[in-house]
Amino acid sequence: MSKPTATPPLTPQFCFDTRVLRDFLRLSRASIDDSISTTLNALITPASTSPFDPASTSIRSPGPYPRPPIPATTTRTFLENVLFPSWNSRASVIQYCTSVATSPDPEDPDVIEREALNRRDAERVVDERLDPYSARFFPREARTEMLASVLRNEVAVEGIVRARTWGTVTDRCEGVGGNWEGEFDRWKEREGGGGTGPGTGTASTRTS
């Protein structure tokens, strides 16, 4: 069923469990963006009904070829009730976790072990003539650094996914043009939101 992705409860623990974080983003993209062509096909049938019911897209059919354009009113309702809220949900998660990754992390469970490793490395005697590998040291990353690396990748993926989805929407729907950033910005302003980029904006952190 095509319905907007709900934002999960946001806590630092959610962000630091990067498997859960990535699963949420992946499943949201799969249910909304990856199936955008099939979802748009399903919009053609209920287009004559008003108001549009987002749940109607749970019944999907390939439709006739060539496919007729989707009316602007139906498209607008879909964008404002399904697609944009799902994008916003993912953006909220990325924004919150980015602020977690850039905040102090006094509860890092590995901080003592990591500091001990760093001290031992500082005390090592390095003689590359006897052992050319003796100078090599690969410090363990803090969990905030690992989280930041995951988020950088997810921000890049999010931008690619949105551009691809928007290309499909503009090809199939009447009254849609321009870029997704502008349309999403305007929707956010109407909804009273803030920043709209895949990884921009602010969020409070350290709330468990």
Taking the alpha carbons of the first and last residues, their distance comes to: 31 Å
Order of helices and strands: HHHHHHH
Kindly state the number of beta strands: 0
Structural class: mainly alpha
- Percent of residues in beta strands: under 5%
Q: How helical, in percent, are the residues?
A: 40-55%
Radius of gyration: 23 Å
GO cellular component, one term: mitochondrial intermembrane space
Protein name: Caffeine-induced death protein Cid2
Organism: Exophiala spinifera
Region (Disordered): 185-208
What is the compact description of this entry?
This protein is mainly alpha-helical and 208 residues long. It is built from seven helices and no strands. It has a domain at 10-43 and 68-107 and 142-184.
Verbal overview:
By secondary structure, the chain is mainly alpha-helical. The protein has a domain at 10-43 and 68-107 and 142-184. It is built from seven helices and no strands. The chain has helices spanning 12-16, 18-32, 36-44, 72-101, 111-123, 143-172, 180-191.
Give the topology.
Layout: H1 12-16, H2 18-32, H3 36-44, H4 72-101, H5 111-123, H6 143-172, H7 180-191
